[in-house]
Structure formats: C-alpha cells, structure tokens
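Hi V.,

You were right to ask for the full record rather than a summary. Here it is.
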Amino acid sequence: MPQSSRILVTGVDTMLGAAVRAHFTTCGATTVGTSIRATDSVGEQLTLPADPADGVQVGSAVRRAAEAMGGIDALVVAHGLPYVAGLGEQTMTDFWNHVNATLTGSFLYAQAAAECMRRNGIGGRIVLTTSRWHIGGADLSAVAAAAGGIVALTKTLTRDFGPFGVGVNAVAVGAVESEWSLCDAGGGVPPAGHLGSVEQVAGVIGLLCQRQLGAAVGQIINADGGLSRNRV
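Predicted structure:
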C-alpha cells in the first residue's frame, strides 16, 4: 500500500491485531488502533477505547480515527477472541457475548468505516477476520455461529459497499500461534508441517488491503497452513 495509507485496526491488544498494526507501521502507513481496555495513546500510535458490541462507542472510535488520520483507507477487524465450551456447559449469555463481540462488532465497525469511506468519495478496503471453524467443531458452537455469520456478512457487505468503491474480504485463521490456538486442539498438523504465525496472517491482510486488487472482493481467504479444503 502507499506510504500515505491510513489504517484503522481493531483489537490491537490481541496477538493478531498487534501484528497487523506492526505490519502496516513497518510499511510506512499511519495507524489508529482500538481496544476494549485502551485508555490513551501508546507513544505516537493512537489507541482508542471501544466495546465492539456497542454501536455508539464503535461509531465514536471510527470518527475519532478518521479525524486523527484525515480519513480511513482501510479497516482491519482483528479484535475477536475465542470462546470454547461444551454445549451443555455454556449459558446463553456466554454464547451471545462471543457472537456480539465478534459478529456484531464486525458489522458495526464495517458499517461505520464504510460510511466514512463513502463520504470521502475515494472508497477503501475492509478486511474482517474470522476462524476457520466456521465449518463447526466440538465445543465451538459460539465460535462457529459467529464465524459462519462473518463469512456470510463478508459476501453481503461486498454487495452493499461495492457500488461506492469499498472492497470487503475476510481471512479465516487456523493453525496459527495466537489466542485462537485452543480452537485447533483436534485439528491435526497442517499440511505446511508447522503452525503459522500472526505475522504471516498480517502479511495476507496487508495484501488484501491493496486497492489494485480491484475485483478480488467478497472472498474468504484461509490462512491455516492448508488444513481447510472447503470452498467459501
């Protein structure tokens, strides 16, 4: 991406969010991050507090980010964290807390950022992140429900936002050393022969944020060492 790119990254307090921010910073981009626990900036990098399930907080964070950077060229949603529990062991509150933080949060951030990009008249790119376990897995009912929703949301937002130049894709992460590793307990060794890293996933996200990809939108890119054989 060009040196002047302005990137909003959610969840910079997660391993993936931190790696994404570091990737873009190394490439010379200006970044603003969000975190549920943020209270102030870290050095010269602005980090804003926002509950991803709260539309008012998300809207405020996106507006502040746009003001600080003079606009938003790309949004990367990376704040999600896993929730693993047997079907009979979780409450509906537990289930919906995860779904709201991940799926609802993805929608709210995409909605607010796309409106900012539309007003700027130059479009932009949005990359959502999700789990490879959108296909379902033991003790992953909440994860699978939210992840499957993000897959469908990606394809729908592409149709909603495409007419004003905003391209939407998603990265489905698995077999990567991160907080999400506990979801992969029964996944086996990936064909790549080893677990991936959040830095590698950040590189994939960086590619998807490039405007010159043009028509490459509405896609779910698996970043899981070759484990997935499904077509989404």
